[in-house]
Structure formats: C-alpha cells, structure tokens
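Tokens for chain A. Residues wanted.
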C-alpha cells in the first residue's frame, strides 16, 4: 500500500551521493531498478534520472518491520529511503558513479507500487519500437533515452545563453497563422468564430522573423515549433523544433561567423569535442560534382569522377546515349571491394535503381590485375585502362559507374557512396565533419508544374553578380543561400533575404507569380517591406537532427520526448482520433461518410 512522503525531504539525487558523504545521513527517492535478497541482507539498486545508488537493508539496523517491507519491493516501485552513507562492504563496482559507496537504510517508505513493466527499464533493449512508444512513459525512464533528453535540454539552454550574449532577443511568433505556400502541406485548424475559414500551423516562422527585422529588433532567435504534413522518415516528424534566427545589416559571412562559434561552443560544452574553425566551405556545384550530394559526408573519400570525355566515342551504348542526351558518365571507387560476390553487386544495382538508375556498370580489379566487368566486351583495352586510371583503381578495387542525366547520376552515386561506406564500416559516429555548402542554385525546374520554382523560398537573395541573369538564364542564377552539413546530414540552412522591392518583383516574375498572386500569398510581408526594410539574413537548425547526431542515434524519435510514428500517429495517446459530433457542429464541419451501396443480385 502506497505511503505518504509527508515529513521527508529528498537531500540528494542518487549519484549526488559520493564518498565525500560517508558517515552522513541522507534521504534519497526513486525507482527500484533491482532487488537482491541474500537472506540476512537485501540489496536494492535505486534509480533516478542521475543514475543508480545501492541501498543496503540490514534487519539489525532497520528493524523487522522495515526489513519485511524491503522484502516486498519489486522493480519500478517508487520508494523513499533515509539512511547513512557507508563505504561498500563488498566489491567496488567500477562501472557505477556510486560504485564505492552504499546507503545503509534506517527507514523505508513505499510511495507507489508498480505492475510488472512490459519491457525491462534498462539500456539497449531489443523491444520493438512500437511497444516502446505505446508505453513511452516507461521508455523515457531508460537511462539511454533519458541521457538524450537531458542532452537536448542542455543544447537548448546553452544556445539561448550564447545567442543572448550575442545580442539576440528571444521573441515568440504565432502558432495560428495564415496558410502560405512554403513547400510542404500545411496542417489546418478550423475556426469556430469564422465558419469555413482555417488557420494554418507554421511550417517555419519565416515571414514573421523577416517582419521582426522590419520592426527594428535587429537580432531575433526562437526555439520554435514547426509543423509539416508530409511523409515521414527517420529524420522527419510532423512537428519538429528549429533553432531559428534572423539578423539585420549582415551578409553571408556574418551569419556564418556567429553560427560557427555557436556550434563550437555547443560541441565543446556538451561533448568536449573541439570543432576546428573556420569550418570548410564548398559551393553547391563542387559538392554535387565531387560527392553527388548537396549534403556530403566528408568522413570518407570515395569521390565521384566524371569520365564522360573518356567514353564519348566508346562502343558501349549505355554510356554514349546518356552523353547524347546531355547527361554524363561518372564513377566511384570502392577500395578493396573487388572480390565482392555477384549477389552483393546485384543488390547494389537494385539499390541504385531505387534512386532512378536504369542500372550500374562495374569493373572489379582482380588481385592479378585483370578485370572482371559487366561491359568490357563493348570497350577497347585502352579505354578500360583509362577508366581504371581515372578512378585511381588498384588491385582489389571495385569501380562503379552510372550514366544518365546529371541529376540522376548525382542522386545514384551520392547515395551509393554512403551505402558502401556504411557496409565498409567507414562511418564513425565519433568523427564530426562539418561543412558549409554555399551558392545554391536560385531556381530548380519543376517538370510537374513546367516552370522554375525557388530552391529555398521566393525571398532568397540572388548573388549580386548573377542578378542580370534573372530573366535571361534563371537556371544559371546562384543564391546567397547556405546550408550547414554534419556527417552527411543537413542540420541547418538559411539565406540572405531580398530587401529591395525591384529585385523581389523580378523574383516573383521569374517564378511565374503575378503581382496579384504574390499579394494574395505574402501581402502582409510585402506591405511591411513598403516602410523601410533593412538588409537581413537568417538561418534555422533542425534541433532534433542536431541532437540526434550529437547523441550518436539513428532516429530523431530517440531524442524527442513524445514522437509520432511513420503514419504521423501517436501510439501513446492514439492521436489523431475521432471527435464527437457536437465539436464538429461548433466548427461548422461535416465529415463526408463513404456510402456503401448494396447491389441486389439479378435473377
């Protein structure tokens, strides 16, 4: 039966007790991790968010009633113990922070009993994720998950303090706002007061933070909740958190400078990792050409090599037809993988097809220097040797080639190099490789809409030297946009914004937006821009992704207290769920019910 803690006050968390407290009386409270009954003695490992502390129940000290009560303890009971700190009588546990001490219990209160949990409350369990998320309250007790959530809190606290010291003001922006086109689908909230009208939950605070610059706040930051109704992956959630910022009277270098120092500060304080400044920069074009990705992982090489010139006159139709259609032929060298079995090579071909490839060509260099290749019969010996040389091929290497439009070749080889690196054990989670990717294209062509669309958003400033190409050659215009990449994951991105009305007008025209449409979608921002707008720029980090990498986890669900699963539902609360008719009526909403027609059999 549960007891009250009236009259007791906790003096320490479990691991705040140390050998410095030997001989002192303490009061500790927490959950029973484990109980061991040795007859005359009972040992209990007590757990709270700080860690474990051993409690010793000795009938000669606590009395028969207290000892009998200790005998009833089971895993996850919540207890309060008063006792004296002692040096351990048994062996010291080197793996525990409190491994050299124990508390000799003098009184025990059972504050709450527990049923047997559906899975053990310990690190690295193999329980399926859907069970863990259904019982997330218990899952969150596990030390590895707790350390992630505590790390996340520390990152947020340090960020706020650092940016405040840099002159940033923390300002909240609305959750209920207007639906504007920002790339993903909005979550909509019906209005009771305005029947038939809807608020949207913000995909980001983008327009509001730009208006704050118009309002003279100079430097804004917010740890902001954002919402996107999109298909989920390991590093995506329908609701997520950004470290969001905007700065006035700055250019690219100013934004990069403050953010490099922020990252160095976070990694030093949280992980004791030194980030070398300045962080390497690479243009988007160079990143694509060398790594096939605008978020390249620099922990390993395996760079792309363009061999188009070498094969333009060869007899292999797959290569030549790709070049005739304006594409390219590129390859990567998987060092030491030349003896890969055919079955595994076929699996790589299937993997590449998932990224748009029609197939993969390969050359395996045998240990005797001969080649085993899928296309050698179409090539001369000199052409094969030239390909091997171009990719620095050596005995035992596996060379893989893709031929298609540039976009597909980059996608295929960019993904393939990471897949191979993973299989080859080249992805060290303790190795943090940062990179700024700069000079993104301003526009990308949408086959679906048959028009140019903004690669970032319509308020991104083109590079000064490319302004004259806005009308004549939109595809060649580079943007003052920048992403910060860590180990092949984009953890943040931003841009310098357009603050001149004439450039903004030209931008809308290039995107095929009429003045009327632009005003309809962004009118409130454009109105604000009529009354004196400073040059400004910003950046936003995905806090969840950043902490995921710092905590060396594979999914952002492990660093979010209450995450959703792939279909955007919450297994803990069963959200989303139906609501009653009365609520719908108040919102002037009628749910369309599927009518099933019964077909009568004809005689």
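Reply:
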């Amino acid at each position: 039966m549960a007891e009250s803690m009236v009259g007791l006050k906790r003096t320490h968390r479990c691991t705040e007790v140390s050998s410095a407290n030997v001989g002192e009386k303490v009061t500790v409270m927490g959950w029973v991790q484990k109980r061991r009954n040795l007859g005359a003695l009972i040992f209990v490992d007590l757990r709270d968010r700080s860690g474990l502390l051993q409690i010793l129940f000795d009938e000669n000290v606590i009395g028969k009633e207290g000892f009998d009560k200790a005998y009833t303890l089971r895993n996850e009971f919540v207890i309060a113990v008063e006792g004296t700190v002692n040096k351990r009588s048994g062996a010291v546990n080197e793996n525990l922070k409190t491994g050299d001490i124990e508390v000799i219990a003098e009184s025990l209160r059972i504050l709450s009993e527990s049923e047997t949990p559906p899975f053990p409350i310990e690190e690295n369990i193999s329980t399926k994720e859907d069970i863990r998320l259904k019982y997330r309250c218990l899952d969150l007790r596990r030390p590895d998950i707790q350390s992630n959530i505590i790390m996340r809190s520390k990152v947020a606290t340090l960020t706020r303090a650092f940016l405040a010291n840099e002159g940033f003001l923390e300002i909240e922006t609305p959750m209920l706002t207007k639906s504007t086109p920002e790339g993903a689908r909005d979550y909509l909230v019906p209005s009771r007061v305005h029947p038939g009208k809807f608020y949207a939950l913000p995909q980001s605070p983008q327009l509001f933070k730009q208006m704050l610059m118009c309002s003279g706040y100079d430097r804004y930051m917010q740890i902001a909740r954002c919402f996107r109704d999109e298909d989920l992956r390991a590093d995506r959630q329908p609701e997520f958190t950004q470290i969001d910022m905007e700065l006035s009277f700055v250019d690219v270098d100013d934004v990069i400078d403050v953010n490099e120092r922020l990252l160095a500060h976070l990694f030093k304080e949280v992980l004791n990792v030194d980030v070398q400044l300045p962080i390497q920069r690479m243009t988007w074009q160079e990143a694509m050409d060398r790594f096939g990705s605008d978020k390249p992982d620099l922990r390993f090489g395996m760079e792309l090599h363009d061999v188009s010139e070498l094969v333009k006159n060869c007899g292999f139709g797959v290569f030549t037809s790709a070049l005739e259609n304006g594409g390219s032929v590129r390859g990567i060298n998987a060092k030491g993988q030349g003896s890969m079995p055919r079955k595994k090579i076929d699996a790589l071909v299937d993997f590449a097809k998932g990224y748009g490839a029609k197939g993969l060509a390969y050359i395996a260099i045998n240990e005797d220097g001969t080649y085993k290749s899928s296309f050698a019969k179409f090539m001369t010996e000199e052409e094969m040797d030239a390909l091997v040389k171009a990719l620095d091929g050596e005995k035992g290497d596996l060379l893989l080639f893709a031929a298609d439009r540039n976009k597909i070749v980059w996608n295929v080889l960019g993904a393939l190099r990471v897949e191979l690196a993973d299989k080859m054990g080249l992805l060290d989670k303790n190795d943090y490789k940062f990179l700024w990717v700069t000079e993104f294209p301003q526009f990308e062509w949408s086959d679906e809409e048959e028009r140019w669309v903004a690669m970032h958003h319509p308020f991104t400033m083109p590079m000064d030297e490319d302004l004259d190409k806005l009308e004549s050659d939109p595809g060649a215009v580079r943007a003052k946009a920048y992403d910060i990449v860590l180990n092949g994951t984009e953890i943040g991105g931003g841009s310098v914004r357009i603050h001149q009305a004439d450039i903004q007008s030209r931008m809308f025209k290039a995107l095929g937006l009429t003045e009327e449409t632009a005003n309809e979608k962004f009118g409130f921002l454009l109105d604000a821009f009529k009354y004196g707008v400073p040059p400004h720029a910003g950046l936003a980090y995905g806090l969840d992704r950043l902490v995921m990498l710092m905590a060396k986890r594979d999914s952002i669900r492990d660093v979010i207290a209450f995450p959703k699963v792939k279909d955007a539902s919450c297994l803990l609360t069963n959200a989303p769920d139906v609501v009653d008719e009365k609520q719908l009526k108040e919102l002037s909403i009628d749910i369309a019910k599927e009518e099933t027609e019964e077909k009568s059999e004809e005689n």
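The two ends are 70 Å apart (CA to CA). The CA atoms of residues 93 and 150 lie 25 Å apart.
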